[in-house]
Model the fold of this input.
Amino acid sequence: MRRSDGRFWSVFVFGAACTLSAAFLYQSFYQPPAAQAQIPDSGQQRYEMVQELKSANKKLAEIVGLLTEIRDLEHRQPTTEKPKQRSATP
Done:
């Protein structure tokens, strides 16, 4: 009975070794297909970045214009309020 137990384990180890070697060989020889449709177009990406920067610059120019108008309106209005004086006592 002992001989059959030893034979079972040797067959099991041999099968596991064959499976592992087959997996390693498969991984070493397997190459995924080339993704030709997914190659980035750097020129298109740069063009899109430039367009985004132009739109951001336009928005910033609008913001600067609005802030300038607000500043000019505040300087044109006469200040009727007198600043509050602080008391000298702590």
User: Anything to note?
Assistant: Residues 42-76 form the longest helix (35 residues). The two ends are 103 Å apart (CA to CA). The CA atoms of residues 3 and 42 lie 68 Å apart. The chain has a mean pLDDT of 81.
